[in-house]
Amino acid sequence: MSDAGILIRPATDGDWPAIWSIFHAVVSRGDTYTYAPDSSEADARRLWMGPGVSTFVAVDGADVVGTYVLKPNQPGLGAHVANAGYMVRPGAFGRGIGWAMGVHSLDAARSAGFRAMQFNAVVSTNDRAVALWRRLGFVVVGTIPAGFRHAVHGYVDLYVMHRFL
Amino acid sequence: MSDAGILIRPATDGDWPAIWSIFHAVVSRGDTYTYAPDSSEADARRLWMGPGVSTFVAVDGADVVGTYVLKPNQPGLGAHVANAGYMVRPGAFGRGIGWAMGVHSLDAARSAGFRAMQFNAVVSTNDRAVALWRRLGFVVVGTIPAGFRHAVHGYVDLYVMHRFL
């Protein structure tokens, strides 16, 4: 499923401009992430590379084609469950980059000692994401009715998805 | 259901010592909140009275007997759903303080323009809380299997609870 030329590695400060370009392109569409479409670069950097967040990039040669973050979903007594977020550069869809990052993140979460992974806010109309997570073993364990204000469709449901590691 | 002598009002900086006393007593038990049982006072203050958080106290005369926080559950395109957390001073249970804060918070959330309220991590063994939220119109919309490491019972489920406003 995944492109053999894709390498996934921890992000460095030098990757930030490329990550920000992807973050901004994805978030400004208002159809897959709750982050405000007009999120500032400073806000984005704090969210994506702030304390407690492990940040990775998917690279194709020198090009950053995707990025994901891994962190505890809850503090203290819920910190055995990981949370992650993934973004693929628009224009790089269909190359298995999401799948490759998903597989990588599950391994990284296991290595970090997490027992499960949880997504809190998968937009129900984001068919590509929902299908990807199902293929990677996640199940919908909750539905937040009208939890997302979609730029095109208005209020749509959010899914909570989960799998053990 | 609620004690006629209880008043609920916005918290001030001067309330912090009493709030911290409640926070520490509740969290250190490790049976109802994911916050680390040994959370520091600085961490607690940032969580409970930090930016973007509206903090309230329930008072009986000069005594702070409970506290709750209200904030958006998600940023940007999910910010129409409120999140809240409530703590009653141990020793003050059974006086309807949780109920009174619950009712107050629903009104406060409506006034602030939220369309719904969501709790992300109601400990499934916390019968008192689950029953209270049901009486206040919340329903379980999700279950995180083994999402909470309970100090006594080990890994138990977390509920996601939700109601429209």
Structural write-up:
The structure is a homodimer of 165-residue chains. Chain A is α+β, with helices and mostly antiparallel strands. Chain A has four helices and seven strands, in the order βααβββαβαββ. The first copy, chain A, has helices at 16-27, 41-49, 97-111, 127-135; strands spanning 6-10, 54-60, 63-72, 81-88, 116-123, 139-150, 154-164. In chain A, strands 1-2-3-4-5-7-6 form a seven-stranded mixed beta sheet. The radius of gyration of chain A is 15 Å and the shape is globular. The mean pLDDT of chain A is 96. Chain A binds chain B through residues 30, 33-37, 39, 74-81, 115-116, 118, 120-121, 141-151, 155, 158, 160, 162, 164, and chain B through 30, 33-37, 39, 74-81, 115-116, 118, 120-121, 141-151, 155, 158, 160, 162, 164.
Q: How confident overall, as mean pLDDT of chain A?
A: 96
* Level-1 CATH class name of chain A: Alpha Beta
Query: How many structural domains in the coordinates of chain A?
Result: 1
Q: Which structural class is indicated by helix and strand composition of chain A?
A: alpha+beta
> Can you write the helix and strand succession of chain A as a string?
EHHEEEHEHEE
Could you list the spans of chain A in which at least 5 consecutive residues all have pLDDT below 50? Answer: none
**What is the percent of helical residues of chain A?**
25-40%
Cα-atom Rg of chain A, whole angstroms?
15 Å
Provide the spatial order of strands within the biggest beta sheet of chain A: 1-2-3-4-5-7-6
- What's the total number of strands of chain A? 7
Q: What percent strand of chain A?
A: 35-45%
The name CATH uses for the topology of chain A is: Aminopeptidase
Principal-axes shape call of chain A: globular
The CATH architecture of chain A can be given as 3-Layer(aba) Sandwich
**Full CATH superfamily name of chain A:** Gcn5-related N-acetyltransferase (GNAT)
GO molecular function (chains A, B): acyltransferase activity, transferring groups other than amino-acyl groups
Organism (chains A, B): Gemmatirosa kalamazoonensis
Protein name (chains A, B): GCN5-related N-acetyltransferase
Domain N-acetyltransferase (chains A, B): 6-165
